[in-house]
Amino acid sequence: MTRKSNFKARVAFSFALASITFFALSCSRNTNFIVETDSDVVSVDANVGSSAADVQSSAEVPQTVSEEPSDFDLEALYNVSEEIELFNGQDLVGWTDENGAEPKGWIVKDGALCLTDPQNGGDLITANVYDNYIFSFEWRFGLDCNSGVKYKIEQPNGKGWIGLEYQIQDDAHVEDGKIEDRKIASLFDVLPASPSSKADAYPAPAEVAPSGEFRSGKIVVAGNHIEHWIDGEKVLSFNVGSDKWNAAKADSKFKNQKNFGLVVSSPILLQCHGYPVEFRNLKLQKLTGK
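^ thats the sequence. predicted structure below, dont judge the formating
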């Protein structure tokens, strides 16, 4: 190779290297981010309360987390919004079935969302997606009922919603009621909840049709920090990504779900699991970091 050819080659190499560096810097300024789910790779904007039809559930980048959630101070870390009514008490506006269509099997009666035809109905899902929030709700059920509230959910194969589940069931009459991490208010099949000190005020149902007093529940989602409440008491608190979480997940039916617990934005789901159940006073408060 001549000196002139060698000089041209060095110049061409330097120009190519500079171009690659400029492209990398430009990409780093992009406010969108790419996340990989079990089904595909998608570009996601960090928007809160967006339409579920426009924004799919997105996987969270793992973060360094505290092993002990007892030192978690919600008010010090987040601004808490006014309550948003997710259910207007009159109709199913703001809710869809699991495929985004009109819900089946659910009706509104006496200000409550009632699953009256569980055999032909399906899950009820918010039309919008949410990331950090406090979700409060009330429910009641009948004999042998199994239901739940799912959050941080995704559709790994384009069908069926998988995610974290606040368990709702008739512990006194079902087999799962004998398993600690499947009892009421637990994180289903992963982490057990402490018993509510007020549980005795809610006798076990004797009939399939929901009756009696409504019980209250609350789910707090603040980044990797999660809380479950029942009857006004916090009964479960954990950090996704901690050693406690990793061990519990590895010992659960969700051990092979790559994004389990890592979804940032998703709808909230009320589960249809073959039995009548009723929900009311569904309210959400958004959390924004300080």
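Residues 1-30 form one domain.
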